[in-house]
Design brief:
The chain has 407 residues and is mainly α. It has two domains: 52 residues, no CATH class; 350 residues, Farnesyl Diphosphate Synthase, CATH 1.10.600. Helices cover 68% and strands 1% of the residues. The chain has 17 helices and two strands. Helix 4 packs across helix 7. The protein is globular.
């Protein structure tokens, strides 16, 4: 323990690294009955005054590799949580710990990571990358991973509800033979990881309550969007009268826009110390429109994207999804073409899927999507350029990542 005290006094600005060191000591039984979190908290609150924060190391590049290193730190902290502390004493607990690790590694870090990495980008755009301390960088990336855990929770649950086959180029988690419906508990665990991480790294932060409220609010909004999606177009029950543009935009706003765009931007703003309600309102407005555009891209890629590139087999037609493609088709189709949609949409047979895709080609939906994409980008770009409440880079970096994306 004396070694840990000495190390802390020399390197308090490297708190994240110290937490990992404490975790390893605890795992080896060298902290007696104290958990790593308790040991570090004791040191944090019972030593000298805080030193001047250390600036982030020169030349820090916000790369996927650096971001993934933070995931490994946070995951290992979770594995050393007191709930799993008996892993060295019990074969049952050890098996649960190994399962928990696999749940995380299989579902959390495998995506594009745009949502999570955006938190640092927003913070750096507001405060200036050169002014950020190591701690600020770590906290931004920690919040980013909380968003990726939220994404993993949603996707594991969504794949079960949709009966999806693949996700990110591999079988959906529930499709792994040994998993099945254990995945229902696993997505609850993934959600719980968010609040375990927030408590560990932000419980003394002045914005802790605000961050907790933000994640809870966005989770509720997204769950509401999923409810709208499932009840508007339930699998096996086709009611084309519900496939309207208004219904569609309501679904995608709640199901996608808030957690994919508003949440990362709001997290970065909170860390940057932004308090102006007008700035948050503006950010929400821009992010919601960006999220709508993103989901319409997703609907297009579900039908026209290469499964080898997008990492999944599109099933929106078979699953009777209220997608942008079918809503647009119903707006421009003739009565005869609408009969084709009624006869074949929402059916699993390959002939029905082919009939819908043929109709989409007849209606030139690819061209209509390209026209929508160009208009949406121009509108967003103008809004971003004209506003003065936040640095333009807060939003333009996000828009650049999704414009004309292929996956």
């Amino acid at each position: 323990m004396q070694q840990l005290v000495s190390a802390f006094r020399r390197t308090r600005h490297l708190l994240p690294e110290l937490q990992i060191a404490a975790g390893r000591l605890a795992a080896a039984g060298r902290l007696a009955d104290s958990s790593p979190a308790a040991s570090v908290d004791h040191l944090l609150f019972n030593t000298m005054a805080e030193p001047t924060p250390k600036k982030a190391r020169a030349g820090y590049t916000h790369s996927r590799e650096d971001f993934l290193k933070v995931y490994e730190i946070l995951r290992d902290e979770l594995l050393n949580d007191e709930c799993l502390s008996a892993a060295n004493e019990s074969a049952q607990a050890k098996a649960a710990q190994e399962w928990f690790k696999e749940v995380n590694d299989y579902n959390v870090p495998g995506g594009k990571l745009n949502r999570g990495m955006a938190v640092y980008d927003v913070l750096a755009s507001i405060k200036g990358a050169e002014s950020l301390t190591d701690e600020a960088v770590f906290k931004a990336n920690t919040l980013g991973w909380c968003i990726e855990w939220l994404q993993a929770f949603f996707l594991v649950a969504d794949d079960i509800m949709d009966g999806s086959i693949t996700r990110r180029g591999q079988p959906c988690w529930y499709k792994v033979p040994k998993v099945g419906m254990i995945a229902c508990n696993d997505y609850i665990l993934l959600d719980c990881c968010i609040y375990r991480v927030l408590r560990k790294h932000f419980r003394t932060h002045p914005a802790y309550a605000q961050l907790m409220d933000l994640f809870h609010e966005v989770t509720f909004q997204t769950s509401h969007g999923q409810l709208l999606d499932l009840t508007t177009a339930p699998i096996g029950s086709v009611d084309l009268s519900k496939y309207t543009s208004d219904n569609y935009m309501r679904i995608v706003t709640y199901k996608t826009a808030y957690y994919s765009f508003h949440l990362p931007v709001a997290c970065g703003m909170v860390l940057a110390g932004i308090e102006d309600p007008a700035a948050f309102d503006l950010a929400q407005k821009i992010c919601v429109e960006m999220g709508q555009y993103f989901q319409i891209q997703d609907d297009y890629l579900d039908c026209y994207g290469d499964p080898a590139v997008i990492g999944k087999i599109g099933t929106d037609i078979e699953d009777n999804k209220c997608s942008w493609l079918v809503c647009t088709a119903l707006q421009v189709a003739s009565e005869e073409q609408k009969e084709v949609i009624k006869a074949h949409y929402g059916r699993k047979e390959s002939e029905s899927v082919a009939a819908i895709k043929t109709l989409y080609r007849e209606l030139d939906l690819e061209r209509r999507f390209r026209e929508y994409e160009a208009a949406s980008y121009a509108r967003l770009d103008a809004t971003i350029s004209e506003q003065t409440l936040l640095p333009k880079q807060v939003f333009s970096s996000l828009l650049a990542k999704i414009y004309k994306r292929k996956k």
